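Below is how a single chain appears once it has passed through the pipeline. First comes the sequence as given, then the structure the pipeline wrote out for it. We keep one example in the README because the format questions we get most often are answered faster by looking than by reading.
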Amino acid sequence: MNRVRRYLTAITTFLLSISLTLTAIAGADPRSMVINRLPELGLEIWTEAVPAWHTSTEQHKGRSVFTARTPLHYYPPASMSWTTLHFDLGSGEELSSLFNTALEEAKKNYQVAASIKVKPVKTQYGPLIGMEGHFSGKNDSENVDVLFFVGQQPGKPAVVMQTLTLPGKLPHLRYQIERSWQYLKYID
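Resulting structure:
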């Protein structure tokens, strides 16, 4: 009997250590996602399902903008938005120019002084190759931090993605941003 107990203890310990190792290797949050197909943007965008983020599509300056917002009592409160721009960013110079133009518009929207410099970083999310930067500003007179990205898959429209949340809380949304932005797809 003692031998059986030791065997079961060893097996249980082994299985537990494997499950902890696999979780650490995966590094991703396994929660469910909602897949939003948006023909008006030509995109498939993943948003949080548990708890479900509130989503809507609105018009802003003649463009469709898809927005996902955290539910009430979610911490930190956050919002993500996506829109498409019908530009072909063939060269790195064109990408840099479009990023800077879109960034200046975003800085105006968030009441950021034109003199504030944002360091662009080349990055990739799923099929999108582009540039991102982050800055602090105001949204409805509340202080916010914003992560801003412009990129595209070659031959497809450029995509602008942004996340805003309370100051200092962007790192808390790392997995939400990763799960959503990494799985973005163009609808063919």
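Residues 32-186 form a domain with the Protein Transport Mog1p; Chain A fold (CATH 3.40.1000.10).

See the next section for the split statistics.
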